[in-house]
Amino acid sequence: MAGTPALEIKGLEAWYGESHVLHGVDMVVQPGEVVTLLGRNGAGRTSTLRAIMGLTGARKGSIKVYGTETIDMATHRIAHLGLGYCPEERGIFSSLSCEENLLLPPALKTGQAGMSVDEIYAMFPNLAERKNSQGTRLSGGEQQMLAVARILRTGAKLLLLDEISEGLAPVIVQALARMITTLRAKGYTVVMVEQNFRFAAPLADRFYVMEHGRIVERFEAAELQAKMPVLNQLLGV
């Protein structure tokens, strides 16, 4: 695919204190792609998302977001390039209602408007029904929807989603899968960290597999069946 990648990582090294957690990660994500980072717990997948956002300690190498080098940027400046990070812990404020949580983050300075509240409620009708409920009184699935919806309102076009299906009922996981499909159709770019292989497999255009802070496999969706023996060995899927 021609043009500037949405995300291009070369030789990324990252540390938490004295711990060296990423070892020369290379990765390219094109605009409009859904890319999944697979790997066992502790493989470095979440650390990769955090490093992209500047939330680890020291970083070395190159991380370009829409062609802009970010390796020495502060987190808030990286976000304003159009990134939205949804961490595994979701970060819903208990003292705020569902709608107050949704309206909390400011718009990014990307020049592109985010989704309106009406558009978000059309995509997530559960949130419309619970808009006046306290944030932490929402179900786990509703909190996950709110965490993603909050990002969409800011104008972010490159979404970093960490384990959004974890621990949720199958009906909610199916709703999240439909959400990813809809976002791709709208031109969003998505990088997902997922333990749930069955959730990620039909959604992703490409896969990267991590082990011990390194990318050990990369392949297209069309190669998935051929790669299943390797994935069984690496992931136990």
> CATH H-level name of the domain at 7-90 and 155-169 and 176-235... which superfamily?
P-loop containing nucleotide triphosphate hydrolases
CATH C-level category of the domain at 7-90 and 155-169 and 176-235: Alpha Beta
What structural category arises from helix and sheet content?
alpha/beta
Q: Tell me the overall shape.
A: globular
- Average of pLDDT: 93
Q: Counting H and I runs of at least 4 residues, what is the number of helices?
A: 9
Strand fraction: 25-35%
Q: What proportion of the residues is helical, as a percent range?
A: 25-40%
N-to-C terminal Cα separation, in Å? 30 Å
Strands, count: 10
State the strand order across the main sheet: 6-7-8-3-9-10
Q: What fold name goes in the CATH topology slot of the domain at 7-90 and 155-169 and 176-235?
A: Rossmann fold
CATH architecture verdict of the domain at 7-90 and 155-169 and 176-235: 3-Layer(aba) Sandwich
Largest sheet: 6 strands, mixed
Rg on CA atoms, Å: 17 Å
Q: Spans with pLDDT under 50 lasting ≥5 residues?
A: none
